Amino acid sequence: MSNFRQVDRRTGFLLPPSVDEWLPQRHLARFVVEVIEGLDLRAFIGSYRGSGSASYHPEMLLGVLVYGYATGVFSSRKLERATYDSVAFRFIAANDHPDHDTIATFRRRFLKEIEELFVKVLLLAREMGVLSLGTVALDGTKIHANASRHSALSYEHAGKLEAQLKAEAADKADVPDGMSIPEELARREERLKKLAEARAKVEARANERFVREQAEYQAKLAAREAKAKASGKKPGGKPPAPPTAGPGRNDQINLTDEDSRIMPVAGGGFEQCYNAQAVVAADSLLVVAAGVVQAANDKQQLEPMLGELAALPADLGKPQTMLGDNGYFSAGNVTACAAADIAPLLAPGRTPHHPSLDERFATAPPAPKHPTPLEAMLHCLATPEGKKLYAQRKHIPEPVFGIIKSVLGFRQFLLRGLDKVRGEWSLVTMAWNVKRIFALDTRKTA
Fold first, then answer.
1. CB 432 within 8 A of CB 287
2. What is the gyration radius of the CA atoms in the chain, in angstroms?
3. Across 282-371, where does the E strand assignment appear?
4. Mean local confidence (pLDDT), 340-359
5. Phi and psi at residue 292, in whole multiples of 5°?
6. Which H/E stretch holds residue 316?
7. Nearest-CA neighbor of 286 among 392, 386, 399?
8. Span 135-188, pLDDT tens digits
9. Whole-prediction pTM value?
10. What integer pLDDT is reported at residue 175 of this predicted model?
C-alpha cells in the first residue's frame, strides 16, 4: 500500500507566515541582505525627493540586483518575475514585487553609486579575513555589447549610401503607385542626417587616432636619432612609417552602440564587444580592480589597472606581485610595475604546453648585476620559484571569468555606452565578490 505525504494547497495558515522563516540561516540571499544593510546608502536615499507616492527602498532594489547578478538573473523582466517565483527573491524583496521598469531605471540611475560600493565590499572582505593582496593576476575577456556586428557601418559604405539616397531624392521621374513623395523625402532626409552624423564620428575618431599615432611616430624618430648620435652609426632597419591622416575605408561605427568595437573572440571570428579587465587576488579569487576598455589589445591596459590598484584604500594592503600573460608584456609595463613597487611576472612569449625534462628542470641562470626591471623579471621567470609562481596565473583570473560567463551566463552587457557598461561590469564583479565572500566565510565556519 502506498504511503505519501498529503498535498494540501487550500488549508490556510493558523498564524501569519513570516518571510524570515522561508530560507535556511546559511543562505546567499540572507548574506546579500546583511551585506547591503551594512553599506552606506545615503547617496542613494538622498537622491529621492520624498514627495509623491512611496518609493521602493534602495536597499531592497539593490539587494534584488546583486542577488540576481550573483545567481545568473540579469534581465529586469526576469528579476520582476523572480520576485513571484523564487523564495530567495521574495525574501530579499520582503514579499514585494517591483516592476521591471522600476528595476531597470534604478540600475541605470545609480551606476556611479554602485561603482563606489565595489570598494566597500572589498573592505568588508578584508574585515572578515578572507582578502589578502599578496599575489594578484590581471587578465581581460571580451564580452559582447548589446549590439549586433551587422549594425556596424563602414566609412566607405556610408559614403555610398549617402550618394545613393541623394540621387534617389533628386530623381522623381518614375514614382511607384501608392508612394507619398513628401513622406519618402522626409524619410530619406532623416537617413541622410544619420549617415552624416555617423561619418562625422568616424572622422573624429580618425583625427584622435592620427594625433596619438603622430606622437608615437615622433617619439620613435627621436629615439632612433638619439641611438644614431650615441653610436655614431646609421641605425639599421627601416625607419618608422608616418601615420596616415583621415579615416580609412574600413573604419566602422556601430549604429546601435557607437562605443562598442569589432573585436576578435575566442574560437575565431569577430563580434561587437567590449574588453573587460579584472585584477584578481590569488588567495581568494576576489576581483580587487575592474575596468572596461574599447581596445581589443591588452598591452595598454596594465598601467590604468595599476592606477586602480593605487586608488584602493590603504586598509586593503598593497599587492606584492602582479601576474600577466604575454598580452601585457612590454618593457614599459615592466618598468611601470617596478615604479609602483609591485614585482611583475609578465610572460615574454608563449609558453609551450609540453616542455622537455631539460627545460622543466634546467638550472637557474646566475642573477645579473645591477639589472634593469626587465632583466630582473626575466631572471625571476627563469628560476624554479618564478616558474612555480607564474604557473598560478591560469588558475586565478580564468576561473572567475569562466564562472561569470559560462556558469552565471553573463556573456553580453545589457546596457549601452562605455560609461554604463563600466558601471554594469562593476555590478557584475561586485556581485561575484559578494557570492565569493559568502562561500569563503561558509568554508571558514564549517
1. yes
2. 28
3. 287-293, 321-324, 343-346
4. 82
5. -135, 135
6. none
7. 399
8. 999 999 999 999 998 888 877 777 777 777 777 666 655 656 555 656 766 777
9. 0.86
10. 57
